[in-house]
Amino acid sequence: MPLIHPLLAGTALVPDSLLRDENETVEPHVLAALTRSLGAATGIWTAILRHDPVNRWYTRLVLSGSVEVWLISWCPGQYTRAHDHGGAFGALSVIQGPVTEIACDADWRPRDWRQHERVASLTFDRNHIHKVGNSGTIPAATIHAYSPPELPMRYAPDAAEQAVEGFLLENALGGAATGDAAGALAVGGGRP
């Protein structure tokens, strides 16, 4: 039986085709449409969202046989460790503030960074490795969807994570972290 957040139950925001128990992999463009649809439902996610300046906050919105969906908040300076998604396809939509993404190669080396502004939506394939967080000065929030659901994630080894953080400081933060971003580049970890 699928799990769905009580505020989403009874709405048409999550298509019935994604709420089945069957293990079907959902394509990235469908995941992106889902995260955009949920992101447009501001009355729902604003009632759920919390910003915790100490620990990155997140809650699962949906879990079925084919998809899992998370609402994640990012206070300034909060980041994941560099990670993959265990072979799952994924999508994310920025619903509040900007977030920064550092994309990594298969050997965990940082290769690129992007700032994703509010209403940006992106997809990624099964091999995508990245670090996501808030390098800005205002809180941010994102909605993420993955398929297949609940695959174990891998995290960058410590030495590789230090290289990713150095890349973030040098490139995305212009050489020095400011404000809450100083000394808080690897807040978080764990799922999602």
UniProtKB/TrEMBL annotation:
Fe cation binds at H83, H85, H130. Coiled coil: none annotated. It comes from the Bacteria. Keywords: Dioxygenase, Iron, Metal-binding, Oxidoreductase. CDD domains: cupin_CDO. InterPro entries: CDO_1, RmlC-like_jellyroll, RmlC_Cupin_sf. It holds the Pfam family CDO_I. One of its GO terms (molecular function) is ferrous iron binding. Belongs to the cysteine dioxygenase family. This is Cysteine dioxygenase type I. The lineage of its organism: Bacteria, Bacillati, Actinomycetota, Actinomycetes, Frankiales.
